[in-house]
């Protein structure tokens, strides 16, 4: 465990799950038989998803179908969590989000997280600027290069499961990250088994409209000043400067053609597109799916592992729940992230149209708590909760969830039908 | 120990330069290639072209496509590239002459999977042609004339070599006597769908599909009007048909596939920047080229004819590496 900290995130709960695994899904078992449990008055939350409840019905026709199939009453272990995530087979509707090149993720945590994600067989995204910040190949003892993460993930990955999505930002395009990976013998086993994707990044939840930001010391900044904006915002004597990536310029035509160009240039790789929580998220997702994206990832404004201006953290971008409401019904593969760490929030996202949810900060904290098994245990918790919740709704697959399964006082409902060809 | 190692080494690939260079087949093929080059220069000179020597290094190069990667070199502390193609310099060269050509060496790190296509080399050469103030039809006319003239000279002057290589000169009858065919990308896609091949309408014709189309043809043909998103930013988008590029490939018959790619070029600065974004490029790294475009470059059209691929077709070879003295296959460690 390191000194990794979060703000506005249930860090203690995540670390508890990373330590104790499935037992942490329940109240402390030591209190069993002595404590009266029950709902506490709801705390006020300005989070659209937190304000929702999952609402099991009394009548459950899909449970009857399952009963007929099994010839016995179904139980929560009968929920089949397997799904496909952006063209990859996944054991549950969960993937590991990109951590990017920020200091918190660039040490050995990135490799440890990759190893555990591989062992779980869940898809994983490798973030932007890993190559420009940590290099493509390791040059010494430190394991922080892109290939280190690829190798750690691929070595632990079970046959037939998972897949790796490699992001590329505008600056990464200068390093030709996708070309490097696509032509590297180390990536061929993933390509040969259809388990490599490239993710086009248009933005991120923590600072929609801005590019990636990191804080560098003076000598590191000097090395990258050709590529990034370097700003001495912390003062002349601070010894540290702000490094900003370009967010890149997108119009509907630029997004459409970039996706087509990716499909043309990397025909053996899946194409993912990451959107920031923009007010036109529905239009952008539609353009991406229609241009052939295998997945659209939306990072809600509450997401993000990295450095961002305070004003952006608190006041910029749509919350994930509103993104889901705006996107509404669709037939594409929608992946979402934004303060996901436990099953109920994940199930609400799935009910509102997501195919899978991404673990960002939670994944990083779990690995930080235990580099060998923290993420394994936390995902165990998530799987157990999803099975409990989905079966309680009278359903037995994540794809069966829909908007009728959630309720809020604000009666949030998806918008009208959206057809994607 | 062999000197050429790698997972994708195809059968017959020489184990050493000695084996390759002393092979009678290699010598014959290189004599054919020499004659092709001589004929190309003769033809282009006759059409008013000036031969320039191309640059090898630059801060940027053609970003390429289909997963190939430029090779970076350290240039006094700056990251420079070996030329994947000299397209940007071809446009710049028109500031000196209206009609130019290079015999240009190109280097592309192709994906290892292409080692066995018979059509990909890491190092190869192009006869690179550019014409100021020209349209696509001007470029295809020059490409057709060049190919026909070179084949005519090889057939007339090197019958013994072709016989040695087992190449039936009857295969060139239509090429030498009839105009090359023209079809649109959309028609090619429809034909492929009719053959049961799942070709994306938004992408380049894939290699297997190209071999199928090529195998059905008895003379070379042009495929025109590729969709935007399948080609680089320099292929001009038709202003009257947004999404369609005024470009072409020249495909050889008998299954030999693509010999040449070309297009009218984008020459307006704002169009170039926009198209760069559409192909995922960071305009910042194209500084010198964009300054040139901002100050004005001539409208033009041109093409690059792959020398080894052309030689392979003329000589009737199994693989393109046979037409290169020092072949480097993708993913294969070679001297």
> How is the largest sheet of chain A built, in terms of strand order?
4-14-13-12-11-7-6-5
Shape by Cα distribution of chain A = globular
**Helical fraction of chain A:** 25-40%
Main β-sheet, spatial strand arrangement of chain B:
1-5-6-11-10-9-8-7
Strand content of chain A: 5-15%
Figure out the total of helices of chain A.
17
Low-confidence segments of chain B, given as residue ranges, are none
The DSSP helix count of chain B reads 11
- The CATH architecture of chain B can be named as 2-Layer Sandwich
Largest interface: A-B, 35 and 33 residues
What structural class is derived from the secondary structure elements of chain B? alpha+beta
User: Given the C-alpha coordinates, what overall shape of chain B results?
Assistant: globular
Domain module tally of chain B:
1
User: On the 0-100 scale, what is the average pLDDT of chain A?
Assistant: 87
Cα end-to-end separation of chain B: 13 Å
Overall description:
The complex is a heterodimer of chains A (421) and B (335). By secondary structure, chain A is an alpha/beta fold. Chain A folds into 2 domains: 78-207 and 248-409, Aldolase class I (TIM Barrel, Alpha-Beta Barrel), CATH 3.20.20.70; 212-245, no CATH class. Chain A has helices at residues 11-20, 61-70, 103-106, 109-120, 130-134, 146-156, 170-175, 177-182, 188-192, 218-224, 252-265, 281-290, 310-315, 320-327, 343-351, 361-369, 374-392; strands at 53-54, 83-85, 88-90, 94-96, 124-126, 164-168, 196-201, 213-217, 229-231, 240-244, 270-275, 295-299, 334-337, 356-359, 406-407. In chain A, the strands form 4 sheets. An 8-stranded parallel beta sheet of chain A has the order 4-14-13-12-11-7-6-5. A 3-stranded antiparallel beta sheet of chain A has the order 8-10-9, covered by helices on one side. A two-stranded antiparallel ribbon of chain A has the order 1-15. In chain A, β9 and β10 form a beta hairpin. The longest helix of chain A is centred in the last third of the chain and has 19 residues, at 374-392. The mean pLDDT of chain A is 87. Chain B is of the alpha+beta class. Chain B has one domain (17-323): Bira Bifunctional Protein, Domain 2 (BirA Bifunctional Protein, domain 2, 2-Layer Sandwich), CATH 3.30.930.10. Chain B has helices spanning 17-21, 24-46, 87-93, 136-157, 159-164, 173-177, 185-194, 207-216, 269-278, 287-295, 307-315; strands at 50-51, 57-58, 72-75, 78-82, 99-107, 123-132, 181-184, 221-224, 247-252, 257-264, 300-306. In chain B, α2 crosses α4 (136-157), α2 crosses α11 (307-315) and α9 packs antiparallel against α10. Chain B is globular and about 55 Å long. The mean pLDDT of chain B is 94. Chains A and B meet through α7, α8 and α11 of A and α9 of B.
């Amino acid at each position: 465990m390191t000194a990794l900290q979060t703000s506005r995130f249930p860090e203690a709960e995540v670390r508890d799950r990373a330590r104790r695994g499935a037992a942490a899904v329940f109240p402390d078992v030591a209190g069993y038989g002595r404590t009266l449990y029950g709902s506490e008055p709801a705390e006020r939350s300005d989070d659209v998803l937190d304000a929702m409840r999952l609402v099991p019905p009394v009548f459950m026709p899909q449970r009857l179908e399952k009963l007929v199939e099994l010839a016995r009453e179904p139980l929560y272990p009968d929920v089949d969590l397997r799904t496909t995530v952006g063209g990859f087979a996944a054991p549950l509707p969960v993937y590991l989000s990109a951590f990017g090149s920020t200091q918190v993720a660039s040490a050995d945590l990135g490799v440890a997280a990759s190893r555990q994600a591989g062992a779980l067989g869940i898809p994983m995204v490798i973030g932007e600027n890993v190559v420009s910040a940590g290099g493509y190949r390791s040059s010494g003892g430190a394991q922080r290069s892109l290939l280190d993460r690829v190798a750690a993930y691929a070595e632990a990955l079970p046959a037939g499961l998972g897949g790796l999505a490699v992001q590329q930002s505008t600056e990464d395009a200068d390093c030709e990250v996708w070309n490097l990976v696509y032509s590297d013998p180390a990536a061929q086993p993933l390509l040969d088994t259809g388990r490599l994707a490239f993710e086009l990044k248009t933005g991120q939840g923590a600072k929609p409209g801005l590019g990636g930001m990191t804080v560098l010391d003076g000598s590191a900044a000097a090395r990258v000043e050709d590529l990034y904006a370097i700003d001495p915002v912390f003062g002349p004597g601070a010894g540290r400067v702000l490094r900003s990536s370009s967010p890149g310029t997108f119009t509907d035509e630029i997004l459409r053609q970039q996706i087509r160009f990716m499909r043309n240039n990397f025909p053996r790789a899946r194409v993912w597109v990451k959107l920031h929580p923009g007010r036109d998220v529905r239009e952008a997702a539609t353009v991406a799916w229609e241009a052939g994206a295998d997945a659209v990832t939306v990072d809600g404004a509450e997401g993000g592992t990295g450095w961002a201006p305070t004003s952006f953290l608190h006041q910029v971008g749509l919350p994930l729940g509103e993104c889901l409401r705006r996107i509404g019904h669709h037939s594409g593969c929608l992946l979402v992230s934004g303060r996901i760490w436990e099953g109920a929030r994940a199930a609400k996202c799935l009910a509102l149209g997501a195919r899978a949810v991404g673990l960002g900060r939670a994944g990083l904290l779990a690995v930080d708590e235990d580099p060998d098994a923290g993420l394994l245990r936390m995902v165990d918790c998530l799987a157990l909760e999803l099975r409990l919740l989905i079966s309680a709704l009278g359903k037995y697959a994540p794809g069966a969830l829909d908007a009728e399964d959630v309720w809020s006082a604000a009666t949030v409902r998806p918008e009208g039908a959206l057809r994607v060809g | 120990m062999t000197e050429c190692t790698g997972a994708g080494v195809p059968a017959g690939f020489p184990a050493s330069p000695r084996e390759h260079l002393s092979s009678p087949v290699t010598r014959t093929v290189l004599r054919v290639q020499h004659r092709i080059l001589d004929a190309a220069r003769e033809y282009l000179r006759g059409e008013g072209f000036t031969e320039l020597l191309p640059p090898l290094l630059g801060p940027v190069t053609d970003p390429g496509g289909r997963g190939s990667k430029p090779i970076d070199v350290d240039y006094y502390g700056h990251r420079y590239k070996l030329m994947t193609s000299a397209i940007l310099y071809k446009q710049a060269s028109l500031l000196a002459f209206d009609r130019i050509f290079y015999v240009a060496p190109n280097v592309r790190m192709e994906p290892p999977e292409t080692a066995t296509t018979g059509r990909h080399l890491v190092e190869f050469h192009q006869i690179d042609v550019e014409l100021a103030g020209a349209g696509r039809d001007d470029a295809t006319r020059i490409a057709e004339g060049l190919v026909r003239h070179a084949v005519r000279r090889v057939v007339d002057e090197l019958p013994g070599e072709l016989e040695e290589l087992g190449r039936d000169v009857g295969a060139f009858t239509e090429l030498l006597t009839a105009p090359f065919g023209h079809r649109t990308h959309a028609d090619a896609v429809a034909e492929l769908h009719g053959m049961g091949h799942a070709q994306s309408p938004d992408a380049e014709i894939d290699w297997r599909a190209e071999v199928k189309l090529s195998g059905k043809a008895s003379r070379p043909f042009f495929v025109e009007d590729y969709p935007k998103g399948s080609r680089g930013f320099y292929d001009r988008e038709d202003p009257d048909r947004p999404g369609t590029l005024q470009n072409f490939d020249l495909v050889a018959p008998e299954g030999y596939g693509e010999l040449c790619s070309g297009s009218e070029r984008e020459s307006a600065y704002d169009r170039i920047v926009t198209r760069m974004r559409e192909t995922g490029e960071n305009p910042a790294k194209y500084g010198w080229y964009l300054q040139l475009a901002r100050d004005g470059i001539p409208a033009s059209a041109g093409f690059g004819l792959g020398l080894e691929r052309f030689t392979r077709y003329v000589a009737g070879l199994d693989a393109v590496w046979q037409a290169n003295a020092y072949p480097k296959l993708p993913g294969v460690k070679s001297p």
